[in-house]
Amino acid sequence: MKLGLLPLLASPCCGAELRFSSLEQMPREGAEVEDGALACSACAASYPIVSGVPRLLPRDGADPRAARTGASFAYEWLRYPGTPEEDERIFREESQSVPEDFRDRLVLDAGCGMGRYALVALSWGAHVVALDFSESLVRLLDAARAHPRLHLVQGDLLRPPLRRDRFDFVYSHGVLHHTSDTRAAFGAVARLVKPRGGLSVWLYGKAGRFRDFVTNPLRPDRAWVGRHRRLAWLIVGVRQLLSDVVRFFSTRLPPPLTYALCLPITILGAVPGLKYLTFSVHPRFRVRLLENFDWLSPPFQHHHTKEELLAWCEEAGFDVLSVLPHGLVPKPGVLARRRR
Ligand SMILES: [Zn+2]
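Above: inputs. Below: predicted complex with zinc ion.
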């Protein structure tokens, strides 16, 4: 942990400032604190810094399903086979942003996982705070030690241990629906954006009402979905039903067994027609396997419509600049700007 991160942190207990437990722990400018403790300035709570990462998880009310969700992602991300080029392409598309939007900006990756997109934001010149609930963020340790612009924080998105109104840009891609309450997590993350700052979010989608489904924006390469909206809506609905049934079991298995269950589903994912009833249709087998695991393992997985997400943006005081286009399965996503 670098000294520069301290002014951005807020205690998860009362939102107050944090300070180093003792003056001796205070690092020099540019140095890293590997192990130590941070104390809340308003109460007696204290939080450890372990392996260079401040561990700012709330102490109370830990839901075992949240722990399992975190553990399942930590398991998965150790196996992720993607390349930096693919990560950048996906990040450009999903954040609906270009490198110029990030240069010298203070950016929060809310739910960074192993940090694929935090590294893209860093390469675009941003000062990046990468926040995650799970242990997977230790994958970013070497990068954080090497880059003065990268900071790691372990914390809960429902009570992010960060100061409000500070960030130029916050993104949370495919994460908020893995908390116990997507809407509350959205609100908590949106409050971290400063006035006129940007917010980019996408969530797992659901079929929803047909009249909302027909207005979902489609990627240009998925124009056929637009010509068969009724069929597409039915497929999405049936797929959701199958998913609910499989997940009833898969979320209760130990992660390695869930991984094994994903193998036949991943093979099915290459069969024309049938593949749309599985959870990933990525052309590469290993990526498909991982995406299926990502789908079937975490206990928390909620689904939303773009109408819900648009209403949350309005409620939080954001103007929506663009809505993310997607393929067959809805992927409600927005790029939004906070009002003054
Ligand atoms: Zn406190």
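The first strand starts at residue 18 and ends at 20.
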